[in-house]
Design brief:
By secondary structure, the protein is an alpha/beta fold. The chain has a single domain (57-227), classed as Rossmann fold (3-Layer(aba) Sandwich), CATH 3.40.50.720. It has seven helices and seven strands, in the order βαββαβαβαβαααβ.
């Protein structure tokens, strides 16, 4: 899929942060973009809206019910709460698991019916927290470790089945998005200090990495791109 012009790409979490930046880059490349969001009014007017709450399994299934052919899926939707294992709210754990893992996995499964016989690509936006547990701990990191495991398992299954769909991840460190503000909710002073201490990644940085994957030659499969600010320690 070296040339994205006239290709069709489905993007979840399309109305803000990384998802919105990816949609913008795709439009610049001439792609047809389908944007999944709970807030269609926040999408770029050129993005075709699909309204869905990914915390609800029936909404996830509904995305694909009347969907035509797609050439790529980019799973950007995510929830991030700092909810510790020792005293965190299990409701927060459940929401993160439903959106970060279950919805992503179901989108992967259902999208396979909509790729052309020549193949396609799935890109899962993960996190550096899927490769190491940050000092703050919490339940968010386990959900991102699960994203890596789901992606690896799906890649093996596809190859065993002889299906030409490639699976990639992009795993960023701190990215200055509304999701980061959600993660630091109640710790706004700590977030301000973090912003002062380093230049964080921007959504456009992640979008460029996703474009590298989507525009790679068909014989090139990129497993995982780990990226962080040059000023982030781990």
């Amino acid at each position: 899929m070296t040339n994205l012009r006239d290709s069709t790409v489905l993007v979840t979490g399309a109305s803000s942060g990384i998802g919105k930046a990816i949609c913008s880059r795709l439009l610049d490349e001439g792609a047809n973009v389908l944007g999944v969001t709970r807030r269609p009014s926040s999408l770029d007017p050129e993005v075709s809206p699909i309204e869905a709450d990914l915390a609800k399994r029936e909404d996830v299934s509904g995305i694909f019910r009347d969907l035509g052919k797609i050439d790529a899926l980019v799973n950007c939707a995510g929830v991030a709460y700092l909810s510790r294992i020792i005293d965190g709210n299990p409701a927060d754990w459940e929401e993160m698991w439903r959106v970060n893992v279950m919805a992503l996995s179901l989108c992967c499964q259902l999208s396979l019916r909509h790729f052309p016989s020549t193949g396609g690509r799935i890109v899962n936006i993960s996190s550096m927290s899927g490769h190491r547990v940050p000092p703050t701990g919490g339940f968010y990191a386990p959900t991102k470790f699960a994203v890596k495991a789901v992606s690896d398992a799906l890649r093996l299954e596809l190859k065993a089945a002889g299906l030409p769909v490639q699976i990639s991840c992009v795993s960023p460190g701190f990215v200055d998005t509304p999701l980061l503000e959600q993660y630091f909710l109640g710790r706004e002073e700590s977030l301000a200090k973090t912003r002062e201490a380093m230049k964080m990644l921007e959504p456009g940085d992640i979008a460029r990495a996703v474009m590298t994957i989507l525009q790679s030659p068909p014989h090139v499969e990129i497993g995982d791109i780990l990226m962080r600010s040059g000023e982030q320690r781990m």
